[in-house]
Amino acid sequence: MAEEANFKCLRCGHQFKAPFSPKDEPQERACPECGSNSVRRIKEKAKKK
Amino acid sequence: MTDVGRHPRIELMTLSEVVDVQGYIGNFRVKVLRKARYVDEKECTACGDCLEDCPVTKPNEFDLGLSTRKAIYQPFPQAVPAAFALNMEECLGNNPIACGKCLEKCEKECIDYDMQDKEVEIKVGTIIVATGMDVYDPTELDEFGYTRFENVVTSLEFERLINAGGPTEGHLIRPTDWQLPKRVAFIQCIGSRSEKRGNPYCSNVCCMNTIKDSLLIKNHWPEVEIKVFYMDIRAFGKGFEDLYKRSKAEGVMYIRGIPGDIREDQETKNLFLLAEDSNTGKVMEHEVDMVILSIGLIPSTENSLIRQLLTLSRTSDGFFMEAHPKLQPVDAPTKGVFFAGCAESPKDIKDSVTQASASASRANILMSAGKFTVEAITSLINEELCKACGLCARVCPYHAIEFDKEKKLPARVIEASCAGCGTCGAECAFDAVVMRHFTDQQILGQVEAILEENPQDKVVVFACNWCSYAGADYAGVSRLQYPPSIRIIRTMCSGRVDEKFVLHAFKLGAPIVLVSGCHFADCHYINANRWTQKRVEKLWDKLEKKGIRPERLQLEWISAAEGLKFAKVMKEMEELRQGVTLEEIDYTRKEL
Ligand SMILES: [Zn+2]
Questions:
Q1: What whole-number distance in Å separates Cα of residue B394 and Cα of residue B575?
Q2: How many pairs of residues across A and B have Cβ atoms under 8 Å apart?
Q3: Of B572, B548, B544, B541, whose CA–CA distance to B558 is shortest?
Q4: Thinking of the domain B376-436, which architecture would CATH place it in?
Q5: Could you tell me the sign of the dihedral formed by the alpha carbons of B380, B386, B390, B394, in that order?
Q6: What are the extents of the domains in chain B?
Q7: B311 in helix, strand or coil?
Q8: Mapped to the 3 state alphabet, what secondary structure does B244-283 carry?
């Protein structure tokens, strides 16, 4: 399965999942709600085992 | 092609592969792997004696497997040089020698099993990329039965079938019974103009190729019934509409609708096409003897390698991107590199020749001048400040910065290669890069001027010259309104926007900062705006750590044609600005 990450739009606040892998080349991202490119990946905090 | 082979000032390197390209305009060093031909190309006269005894039989690639060839062969009849080549992977004559029949047969003793591949380095001033394209493989479109029915062929296979030099010597036959097909169907747009399977773009040549083929059939075999299934016929070139009309006048039937399904009569091997004619709304079944799939053109599989070798960029369709779609249509973004033919986009012979002539002229202008004037907007390294960390060289999309890791010498900008995006300047942590005409001092000066009075009422917008700034311009000429709080600072590329410019703006009380550049596919500096995105992402983290809302730094890709988007985004910026409190601004000033 393709890796996914959580993203947050810094314009409208919408949160969404999108395919993401740290190995990929950077891609242009847009918020599916408002179309803004101010899309920030929410890095998951290191999970405790 | 023969003329090229004979030209005293053209050295043709066949069976060769470019393995490395170093240097810059006027001074390229190209490493070429010259593969062993195992036949002396100067001595061989392609008499064909060696063929007779060669026991190896392989599908002939040029005839798309419709005929066979030997392990020693000439790739196609007019190949230059007119000499045979031996495919050593197929030959039985080497290591240990098991055959050697061609060697015995060749009276001129042209064959040498011990030939070796050679790597040579050549120095050139300019490079023209004319690496062509591939064709779409229709296997995935199973409804057309390309792999299931023998009488379904591609337009390229059909081209060989009706070529006088082809496997049937130009006699039109269908594969199952080698008889003249009485009813032929062409299906257009196979692998083209589809968002789901194949490619979204129009392949440019297929409509005219079908029209040409239909006329060719009608000229030689007027009794053959021809049906063309199409979405739209695109006959926009000089004389093309006339050809289309002629084809219709000759009785070729054009049916607007692509068949949804093809089935085969197992006995007769005839094919039944079910299609709706969108002009009449009627669904009809058409029985034909043979189907030709008009396949589209796709980027060459070698493009990614060539892209790396020459630091080129590609458009979203996978073809190479020109430096400017209107004003520099044959120039690559890398100076001294030009395009010809389908490497840049699908095109026909006439357009390829036009582009090739343009490329040759563009290259020739540079070569005969022997000198090249660079733009004044280039970067310069302040050697005293440079710590030789190499970051600037890493981010330069043009590999225009030389840097010796071992000797720890200051970085050096090759001005002939530098395109002036300024990404190096934004990346350098030691302020050692001077981006001429867009220096730190100049840009920080603009930030200060904007925020000198009532900074809380201003939105600082960094806009790249080619897209976002042009988008602002377009919004202006279209008389679109945007709020007066917007203050624009132009940089050549958004990649020039240094972290410290943004932080300085916040420090001076800016409520909102927007960094804007070209869409990824349009970046005028190959991929410099990828670094913009990375830098903004880093800044979001940094702001958050300091307790500053990352939302106050915004990012947007706006193209030159998106005046409307520009105005819309600016209104959104103003709304965001109104949401920033004076306390927040004060806190930010103290924190930074
Ligand atoms: Zn949004």
A1: 38
A2: 35
A3: B572
A4: 2-Layer Sandwich (3.30)
A5: negative
A6: 134-298, 376-436, 438-591
A7: coil
A8: HHHHHHCCCEEEECCCCEEEECCCCCCEEEEEEECCCCEE
pLDDT in tens, B499-542: 999 999 999 999 999 999 999 888 888 889 999 999 999 999 99
Instruction: Name the closest residue on chain B to residue A43, using Cα atoms.
Output: B541
Cβ separation B550–A36 shorter than 8 A = no
Per-residue model confidence as pLDDT tens digits over B7-33: 999 999 999 999 999 999 999 999 999
For chain A, the average pLDDT equals 86
Residue partners of B307: CB distance under 8 A and separation at least 6: B313, B314, B320
Q: Can you read off the two tokens belonging to residue B176?
A: 């199952």
Tokens 């470019």 locate to B18
pLDDT (mean) for B413-425: 94
Burial class of residue B308, CB neighbours in 10 A (0-12, 13-18, 19+): exposed
Tell me whether B550 touches chain A (CB under 8 Å): yes
Question: How close is the nearest chain A Cα to the Cα of B551, in Å?
Answer: 5
Q: Do residues B84 and B72 lie in contact, with contact meaning Cβ atoms separated by under 8 Å? A: yes
Share of chain B above pLDDT 70, in %: 99
CA distance B142 to chain A (A): 26
Mutation choice for B interface testing from A37, A42, A44 by most B CBs within 10 A: A37
**What is the whole-number distance in angstroms between the Cα of residue A34 and the centre of ligand 1?**
4
Nearest CB to B534 within list A10, A11, A26: A26
Name which residue leads in pLDDT, B326 or B128: B128
The phi, psi pair for B420, rounded to 5°, reads: 85, 30
Summarised one tens digit per residue, pLDDT across range B261-313 is 999 999 999 999 999 999 999 999 999 999 999 999 999 999 889 988 998 88
Measured distance CA(B84)–CA(B89) in Å, rounded: 15
- Which residues 1-49 of A are in CB contact (within 8 Å) with B? 10-11, 25-28, 36-41
Architecture of domain B134-298: 3-Layer(bba) Sandwich (3.50)
| Cα distance between residue B355 and residue B357, in whole Å | 5
For chain A, which domains are there?
A: 3-42 (2.20.28.10)
E strands of B109-256, at which residues?
A: 118-124, 127-129, 133-135, 152-154, 183-190, 225-230, 253-256
Tell me how far apart the alpha carbons of residues B151 and B228 are, in angstroms, rounded to a whole number. Answer: 16
**How many whole angstroms separate alpha carbon B211 and alpha carbon B239?**
12
Interface test with B, best of A7, A8, A9, A10 (most B CBs within 10 A): A10
DSSP conformation letters of B62-95: TTTTSSEE-SEE-SSTT-SS---EE-TTT-SSSS
| B564 CA distance to ligand 1 middle (Å) | 18
Query: In A, which residues are within 8 Å of B537 by CB distance?
Result: 40-41
Smallest Cα distance from A23 to chain B, Å: 14
ipTM of the complex, rounded to two decimals: 0.93
pTM of the model: 0.82
Out of B520, B554, B572, name the one closest to residue A28 (CB). B520
